[in-house]
Design goal:
The chain is α/β, with parallel strands linked by helices. The chain has one domain (2-66, 73-301): Alpha/Beta hydrolase fold, catalytic domain (Rossmann fold, 3-Layer(aba) Sandwich), CATH 3.40.50. 38% of the residues lie in helices and 15% in strands. It is built from 9 helices and 8 strands. An 8-stranded mixed beta sheet has the order 1-2-4-3-5-6-7-8, sandwiched between helices. Strand 1 (48-54) and strand 2 form a beta hairpin. Helix 3 (94-104) crosses helix 9 (285-301) and helix 4 (123-137) crosses helix 5 (152-166). The longest helix has 17 residues, at 285-301.
Length: 304
């Protein structure tokens, strides 16, 4: 049954996600279609959602229980959502954030950061920086706070973690990257090697989205492609990536560079899985098991 569910999920993405993200479809359509696709998933029951504001930045907080414990006695995750820097929102990631909150027991904060091309780099990183300060301002302590990003959100999570060092703000206890997009130059061999195997992503969409996010910056600029940044100050990092995705090599190369810079890094490669498969936790046991690994990693890193 699980094999059948996995095959159906792969066919669904290949038929209804991959063809409609990128040229020739206009960005407005891509955003509406992405929001519609997000509604096909299901979140866990009994997740409490709260809307917060940091200036003009909207943040959604997800908590798996109505536990009244104060923030300084709770774990926290700042979740930088994916969407190629150009689509998706905190609302469209509500189901995924709910599964992360349920699995980890943490308060999960998802900022509605500004999107390209209207707001290219560094606007979304600035928003995530502000969101992190807001999380700490609510009473969460860095020793029990993690930063998590999936896909394009992985690049933003790394860039934000590096910005904390420059601004002398306490770093989170851990960094989690799910299928991160870290090299916007698209120079990795897997971009071509896995083009037919990947049921979600097309190079043409990444080209379009990468240019939009970079704006006036070069796509090789470390502020845009954190694969090329100085990584030595990153907190302990977990990377999860599917063997069938065109961004596979982004994770492998980043893990190598982070390890060489002295970062404590773990990378998990899931054979036969695709980009961001953890978001299918509602129906796929393998996706939930991957989130269990995330929870175990954070449990080892948080200082309670």
């Amino acid at each position: 049954m699980q094999k059948l569910s996995k095959a159906i999920a792969r066919l669904f993405l290949r038929a209804f996600f991959k063809p409609f993200h990128g040229p020739p479809f206009p960005l407005g359509f891509q955003r509406r279609w992405s929001a519609l696709i997000a509604k096909t998933g299901a979140g866990p029951s009994d997740v409490h959602e709260e809307e917060l504001w940091s200036g003009e930045l909207r943040i959604l907080r997800f908590r798996a229980t109505a536990d009244p414990a104060p923030a300084d006695d709770r774990d926290a995750i700042l979740f930088a959502h994916g969407g190629g820097f150009v689509v998706s929102s905190a609302s469209s990631y509500a189901n995924f954030a709910g599964w992360i909150a349920t699995t980890t027991g943490a308060d999960v904060y998802v900022p509605d950061y500004r999107l390209a091309p209207e707001h290219p780099s560094p606007a979304p990183t600035d928003d995530l920086f502000a969101a992190y300060r807001t999380v700490l301002g609510r009473g969460h302590v860095p020793e029990r706070t993690a930063m998590l990003g999936d896909s394009a959100g992985g690049a933003l999570a790394v860039s934000t973690a590096l910005a904390l060092r420059e601004m002398d703000v306490p770093a989170p206890a851990a960094l989690v990257l799910l299928s991160p997009w870290l090299d916007l130059t698209l120079s990795a061999p897997s971009i071509t090697a896995n083009a037919r195997r990947d049921p979600m992503l097309r190079r043409s969409w990444l080209e379009q989205s990468g240019r939009a996010h970079a704006g006036t910056l070069r796509r090789a600029d470390p502020r845009v492609s954190p694969l090329f940044a100085e990584l030595r100050s990153l907190p302990p990092t977990l990377i999860q990536v599917g063997s069938d995705e065109i961004l596979l090599d982004d994770s492998v190369r980043f893990a190598d560079r982070a390890w060489g810079a002295g970062v404590e890094v773990e990378i998990q490669r899931f054979e036969g899985w695709w980009h961001d498969f953890q978001s299918a936790s509602a129906t796929l046991r393998g996706a939930r098991e991957a989130l269990d690994d995330v929870a175990a990693f954070l449990d080892r890193r948080f200082h309670r």
